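fyi for ur records
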Amino acid sequence: MRVGDPRLVLIVAAVLWLPGCAGNPVPREWRQPATVAQRSPRGGWIHIETLKASDGRSQASPPVEGELIAIDQSIHVLTAAGLQSVPMASVRRVTLVGYGTRAGALAGWAVGGGISTLSHGAFLIFTAPMWAITGVVAARSG
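which gave:
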């Protein structure tokens, strides 16, 4: 592959978009910017994957998701059906989202910056990876 090869640009763009493949279980109306979420009385959105015992084997049961209310020996969640308590022993996996990040916007700027390095000539070898690395780190840490 040479420096100005379009395949290199596509590879860099694909690497930058990979972090965006992770799903977000939070409904759009619950995704608030950090500044709004810090002042909101609402809890974070929680998605709990639970286990249920059946014939001595553990099987996945339907997830519980909604607003996180409290955690003690159980996780208390306000769902669409009402308040539900999930015992800690039956929890398989938990995803808690406090606020909506702008990871997609950061990834878009990183892709744009990576494409702009085509004008850098031979220095593309140095500047394109910088855009890729900082873009992925910024999107993931957001």
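The longest strand covers residues 57-71. thats all i got for now
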